[in-house]
Amino acid sequence: MSGGSGSILDGLDAEQRVAAETLLGPVCVLAGAGSGKTRTITHRIAHGVTSGVYTAERVMALTFTTRAAGELRSRLRELGAGGVSARTFHSAALAQLSYFWPQLVGGPLPRVLPGKAATLAQAAEGLRLRLDTAALRDVAGEIEWRKVTALGMDAYERTARTRTLPGGLGVEAMVELHRAYESLKDERRQLDFEDVLLVTAGMIEAEPRVAEQVHESYRFFVVDEYQDVSPLQQRLLDLWLGSRSELCVVGDASQTIYSFTGATSEYLLGFGSRYEDATVVRLERNHRSTQPVLDLANRLMRGRPGALELRPAAPAPGPQPTSAGHPDDAGEADAVADAVAAQLREGTAPEQIAVLCRVNAQLALVEQAFARKGISTRVLGSARFFEHPAVQRAMLELHSLAGAPQRGPLFQVVSDVLRQAGWTLEPPAGAGAERERWEVLTALVELADRAPEGATLRAFADELFARKSSQHEPSVSAVVLSTLHSSKGLEWDSVHILGLNEGLLPISHARGLEAIDEERRLLYVGITRARRSLSLTWSGEGLRGQRRQPSRFLDELRSGTRDARRGDAG
């Protein structure tokens, strides 16, 4: 599209148009789910370029994932603004660092590590700490959190005393490991992912001529998903801006679901206070979902900080969301599979149906239930269950034992093998890779527990390998299985959210009001993925008859749903 700016703004609703026409000064766009935020900011940038207010090369559009940056670039090209730089924070910082490093320090930029695990393992070995792969991944996450929240080592040591630390490490051992990791990295002239932002920020602060060149290169900034910005990213953004205020931010506090990585919605919610002359635009007109779905989403978030009141862009009647409890996890998975099978018979395309849950391991029973009905599935955003390293190792061990005489019932044999691999009946205290490994191994134990009476280890191992093999068959059209985190930014005609139980949603390691509110926002993200049809389910029993309670969030939502089994109001 290369016509005049009037044609660029055609098709925007009234609020979107206000945001797109406000080209100068600080602008904050509070964009609710399904309100067309990407459309709004790309049309705003294109309008600024085609009207001559912006020089394309001096505009920087920032986001948080390579996929999102690619989508921005694609849309801007279509709108005639292909010269605009659309990048992630890290990509933009790395480009500047690569340019200025030879001038300031001399020689090539230090190597940027693809990951922390190898260096961390060597640091741990030097301290005679025994940490497995999952614990190393979690320690890497702790280092990332320290850096993006802009904590020095002393401040981190104080804060660490209030955190659940991975690997069974105490505060002193954790701090010592952090220091050893940083020393190894410095000795080898290496940078990690977060160092790229830290060093770029330090370079701009320390060198006036670098700051001058950066300010000359970019004048206008747009930040998408601003609720996900970390203190370190905000510091760098402030340095890029300097004394100017040509900044447009777009976000939704109700979709802040990455606080565990250091993201905070405080900068979004405080934007109007920080810039007293800011234009604040609220996009509450939803172009995606039906009125009953939006009513449920609004009910969940009502009274929360920054919550927007979503309303349909046009009259949007639709079926009332359903809710239903089931006797156990397997029964819940079967019920969801039955509901999806009915939708497929009615003509809904498989790729327009999604099944969402809190953690990836919950999908094992779902995959099994769908496979029995011959329904193709694909897992979104993470490795499939049978591709998880812990599952693969367990399967090999079970297969190697399958030829020997079986000692005891299948459940006992499988759980004994997994206990030797580190599985316990109780989950680890914190989140992260250790928790993920526990979840997938627990899912294996649950599969064994659900096996027919008298099932042999040989039959069980053969079934696991058959399931793994069948998942590699290509499927052009398939029902989407996803965690709630991975579903963000996507939408489907029909969404099924399962596992609305205490301990799952909210997750058991979510302690305190802030953590529970994050779980609430995660459910909100799931609800607002649905265009037309939405179902919520839970189970009354988990592994080995362990009783489960419905999620506390259901108490607030049941009046906006009908019972899927009886058809009456919740």
Structure, described:
The protein has 570 residues and is of the alpha/beta class. Strands 13-14-12-15-16-11-17 form a seven-stranded parallel beta sheet. Helix 23 (513-527) links the parallel strand 15 and strand 16. The longest helix is centred in the N-terminal third of the chain and has 17 residues, at 171-187.
Keyphrases for this structure?
7-stranded parallel sheet; 6-stranded parallel sheet
How do the strands line up in the largest sheet?
13-14-12-15-16-11-17
Beta fraction? 5-15%
* Average of pLDDT: 88
Helix coverage percent? 40-55%
Shape: globular
SS class: alpha/beta
Q: Quick one: how many beta strands? A: 17
Discrete helix count? 24
Distance between the termini: 49 Å
Radius of gyration: 25 Å
Low-confidence stretches: 472-476
Largest sheet: 7 strands, parallel
Outline:
By secondary structure, the protein is of the alpha/beta class. Helices cover 47% and strands 13% of the residues.
